[in-house]
Amino acid sequence: MKHLLLALVALAAPASAQDAAEQPTTASIVAAAPASDWRAIDPADMLVMTLAPDRDGKARQVVIQLMPPPFSQGWVGNIRILAKARWWDGTSVYRVVDNWVAQWGDGEDDEAKAKPLPEGAKSPQASYETLIPDPDANASDLELFTRRIYREDPYSNGLLFFEGFPIAYWETIGEVSYEDAEGKPLPNPLEGREFAWPIHCYGSVGVARDLSPDTGTGAELYAVIGHAPRQLDRNIAVVGRVIEGIEHLSTLPRGKGDAGVYDDPKLRVPIVSVRLGDELSEAERPRFEYLASDSASFARYVEVRANRHDAFYKVSAGGVDVCNVQVPIRRVPSE
Amino acid sequence: MKHLLLALVALAAPASAQDAAEQPTTASIVAAAPASDWRAIDPADMLVMTLAPDRDGKARQVVIQLMPPPFSQGWVGNIRILAKARWWDGTSVYRVVDNWVAQWGDGEDDEAKAKPLPEGAKSPQASYETLIPDPDANASDLELFTRRIYREDPYSNGLLFFEGFPIAYWETIGEVSYEDAEGKPLPNPLEGREFAWPIHCYGSVGVARDLSPDTGTGAELYAVIGHAPRQLDRNIAVVGRVIEGIEHLSTLPRGKGDAGVYDDPKLRVPIVSVRLGDELSEAERPRFEYLASDSASFARYVEVRANRHDAFYKVSAGGVDVCNVQVPIRRVPSE
Fold first, then answer.
1. Of these four, A40, A284, B165, B296, which has the most CB atoms within 10 Å of its CB?
2. Which residues, in sequence order, are bridge partners of residue A165?
3. According to the model, what pLDDT value does residue B302 have?
């Protein structure tokens, strides 16, 4: 009976343990990916945040990759202005909530006392979706995610990877009704068009805001340190992701004050500096690559993330949650 | 144009900000749930793990609720034997991997040196699924999860909550083929039947094992401290979940040795004791309740997790990932 169950759920499973041992793993695919399947991340598109050393005197550095155009660029623009103005230097990580976020910036609730923003940094108009007028025209960039998980996302009706970032989209398909205030059907002005937005996964960096959706500037940021809070998608600007050093945020003590803010100011973790990667010297400049999401290696990688047949896995799911894909990113040694 | 986008994605959105302020939140639903919608967790079904105090001398206690029958009971039985034998006392948390797990137990890789298990604790036969011969007969207990997310899970074809735990299942529907070794179609002996398994979410506790699926006993356990690793579902026994004190595991330093094991033995966090809740004195006994998954309050709670219209949310997703439901659990004050 056990054999029957196995056969039923693992239809594509290898015929023998011998085969299983030879099946590719995600690690073997990443290791075998040719250099041409990796893309360099421009240092100008990275933030390097240096925290005060920990209590054992160990250095703490967090590297963030900023979201590429066309997504969240109003906030990303502000973040560049803030970094160049040294705005975060001397601020802190002031809020940490388990299975939720670590948040940093000024952390001053009282507007009168808040640290003034540099010239040019204002709340962008709050639009968390990006309209893609002609998806086919963008097909080379906006390569489709595997068809296997297409329409299997509770938060959207489609998923793809764009320049290494997970993106969800909504297609204005026939069954989506469009009504006036009285509930009377109207012609759908977006028929066949799509709009898209970046996804909150573990490590994603977003713009904290107040209740009003136009209140976030990018000065107060957070990184996700728990299960993907996808309900925040389209409600908050996702502006990047932590690509190194997330443990310096995820291991911080959880805050005991309101909303997880540190009630004891001594618990705040001082931010020494935040710099754009290209502001640093050649020697300090971060060098990273991601596995290109339109490469053959990435397609194989996603395939195996969804269908694991290596020696450990007894059954494979046949699918993968978009935040479990985890785009491979690697540090490149300095020359 | 912005108004149009909004109308399109938030079809059920309230007509005004005034309405939004009056919409229930998950917190307001939980606060309003009558006592009859809460179920006490039997102290006999809890593990209380006391870690050595942290470096500031603060106590660290982790409370785990064990998986109810019929799921994973071979391992849960072992865990009861191990706790009663004081087997974990003097062992440690020895492996911590960011966005993955914190693992504890003996941690000895060399079988010859491994701490012997107490009498009766053996590897259960490895079957990570539970056959449910007649789902309709169990309908009162195995209440269906909201239809909204049904068939929108990349890891199963159905989801439900059973006694407060998220469960996935696979239905042997017509399109699932059943073949012999040569690929020839065979009659499906499980036609119309379902089998089900507990899900890995943030905080889930599972049984570490070696490559062979029958090697886990329950002596080496882990808790998930990152995005739900659903690919482990059906490959590892899920035996419970952390209901209090997960931060004592999730904030531990990440291991730098192979597979995230602490290379420096001094980093291991000593386990003072692990007790079943009913082994403790009345005063020490943990008292918790969960919001009953077959209650009206839980149905409302899930509805709002999927469709948020309170003052913060600009758009609501219209769906919710099963690991984002997060069953409400509360500590009950001692009498």
1. B165
2. A162
3. 87
Residue ranges of alpha helices (H) inside A66-171 are 73-84
pLDDT in tens, A273-317: 999 999 999 999 999 999 998 888 998 898 888 888 888 888 888
Note whether B321 contacts A11, CB cutoff 8 Å. no
Q: What is the pLDDT of residues B278-329, one digit of tens each?
A: 999 999 999 999 999 888 899 889 888 888 888 888 888 878 889 999 999 9
Those residues with Cβ within 8 angstroms of residue B113's Cβ, 6 or more apart along the chain or in another chain: none
Contact (CB<8Å) A179/B7: yes
Contact B227 A227 (CB under 8 A): yes
Instruction: Considering only CA atoms, give the Rg of chain B.
Output: 22
- Decide if A192 contacts A172 (C-beta within 8 A): yes
Sign of the CA dihedral with A18 first, then A19, A22, and A28 last: negative
Q: How far is B41 from chain A (nearest CA, A)?
A: 23
Provide the shortest C-alpha distance from residue B260 to chain A (in Å): 13
Quote the minimal CA–CA distance from A249 to chain B in Å: 9
How is residue B112 written in tokens? 């010859």
Considering only CB atoms, which chain A residues are within 8 Å of B170? 8-9
Residue type, A277: G
> B99 — contact with chain A (CB < 8 Å)?
yes
Q: Give first-to-last CA distance, chain A, whole Å.
A: 58
- Nearest-CA neighbor of B108 among B89, B94, B122, B96? B94
Nearest by CB to residue B177, choosing from A11, A317, A324, is A11
Q: Could you say which residues from 264 to 293 on chain B have a Cβ atom under 8 Å away from some Cβ of chain A? A: none
For B207, the enclosing helix (H) or strand (E) is: strand B204-207
* Cβ pair B98:A227 closer than 8 A: no
- Cβ contact, residue pair B189, A314, below 8 Å: no
Give the burial class of A37: count Cβ atoms within 10 A of its Cβ; 0-12 exposed, 13-18 middle, 19 or more buried: buried
Q: Tell me which of A65 and B334 has the higher pLDDT.
A: A65
Beginning with the edge strand found earlier in the chain, give each strand of the sheet holding A288-291 in spatial order: A38-40, A288-291, A329-331
pLDDT digits (tens, 9 = 90+) for A218-261: 999 999 999 999 999 999 999 999 999 999 999 999 999 999 99
Which residues of chain B neighbour A9 with C-beta distances below 8 Å?
129, 170, 234
Nearest chain B alpha carbon to A251: B251
Q: What is the pLDDT of residue A134?
A: 53
Among candidates B5, B202, B251 on the partner chain, residue whose Cβ is nearest the Cβ of A254: B251
A131 vs B317, higher pLDDT: B317
DSSP three-state, residue B185: strand
- Percent of chain A past pLDDT 90, that is, above it, reads 55
Interface touch B308/A231, C-beta < 8 Å: yes
- Write out chain A residues lying below 8 Å of B211, CB-based: 311-312
Q: What is the dihedral of CA A253, A259, A263, A265, to 10 degrees?
A: 70
Classified as helix, coil or strand, B32 is helix
Segment holding B224, helix H or strand E: strand B221-224
Return the CA Rg of chain A.
22
Torsion of CA B19, B21, B25, B27, to 10 degrees: -150
| Residue of chain A nearest B178, judged by CA positions | A8
Dist. CA B275–CA B289, nearest whole Å: 19
- List, in order, residues 6 or more apart from B213 with CB less than 8 Å away: A314, B126, B128, B235
Low-confidence stretches of chain B (pLDDT beneath 70): 1-21, 125-126, 131-152, 171-193, 335
Question: What pLDDT, on a 0 to 100 scale, did the predictor assign at position B315?
Answer: 84
pTM score, two decimals? 0.88
